[in-house]
DNA sequence: GCATAACTGGAGTGGCCTATCCAGATATTC
DNA sequence: GAATATCTGGATAGGCCACTCCAGTTATGC
């Protein structure tokens, strides 16, 4: 039987980690998290032997929300508005948490349930893309794999501006959305091969 | 009198640091650099007491090149082609070195000569911007302060793709340039206040 | 070729990191 | 309320970090 106080401690660790990741990013130290939780380092590491487990636990809600945002956008009647809403809201989600911004451009193979949500988002985004292209609104040479590219770009902006200029990502978003419109689109260089980009998102 | 072998050591440190920064980014440890240079840690730190001095020394060439690229673009007769060339070549310079990519979105107040080159680039870019806008090619609501925003975005892409998909930044660049065209430009959110963005680029 | 100023690298310090160990504390069960 | 299974946090180890100290080495000027 798991003891009641152990459950309480586990939850304190998760709460503390959520704050620490938001403040400091994903590389907040386990020591720091233990300190904030008012719990020993041993207790923290007993509950979450690998940092990735803690990350997956802390951000499972947000990851689900990520996939939900994509599905809600796909449910909108207007294909192009749906696509734009998806990009905007995902970027906004990224801006809401330094840690989650990094989660979205990372990969956590040790947490299958977590990655399943990401896969759900990708599948839906794929459909969203095709629908917007079929409607002639999204440029035909856009590929779903451009999304991680944009997430990386947005993460770069967010990590440097979120404290001093928290709205900077909105301007980036606007630039992106305009360049994704099918109207007057100019040719692009070749897209990034999916496999290779995914590889780059594997843990180091 | 500075001894000949001391000069030689200093140069070995600079060369080793250039490689280490390119491989590992700006946070390569001083220990690692000393090891690569085949020199004691004490010698390394005696030559460069602060990491920033070493960074400014290693990247002074590239920083000058950055400003030169901007000036060369400003010297081109066609304002819009000049502007596009500037953005493309600066992004390419960023892609050529993980460390320099970070330098371009950082700030090194302890190295005034270094920052003077950056200021030269900014001044020229400002003129380049106005000229391209006067020609009606660059959208009127673009502000020079959007450049650091794009540099941050590009740095984000580069840091995650340079190994596995080294051409990814080109696609980002193409998207950006299209959204900067004056033709069919849609309204944007407010630009990031200059002061605040600069502040965010100050060392932590 | 010697005296000396200039320079060297290794050893040591203190800090923070992950990770493990274990004697003691505590919730639970009966 | 005693027995026990569960859980705790401090101490500890080993690694890497920036940084300092100093006895010993080496280039240089005469």
Automatic annotation (TrEMBL), chains A, B:
InterPro entries for this protein: Homeodomain-like_sf, HTH-type_TetR-like_transc_reg, HTH_TetR, Tet_transcr_reg_TetR-rel_C_sf
Superkingdom of origin: Bacteria
Keywords on record: DNA-binding, Transcription, Transcription regulation
SUPFAM superfamilies xref list: Homeodomain-like, Tetracyclin repressor-like, C-terminal domain
Name listed for the protein in its UniProt record: TetR/AcrR family transcriptional regulator
Signal peptide: none
DNA-binding region residue numbers: 29-48
Gene3D superfamilies recorded: Tetracycline Repressor, domain 2
Domain HTH tetR-type: 7-66
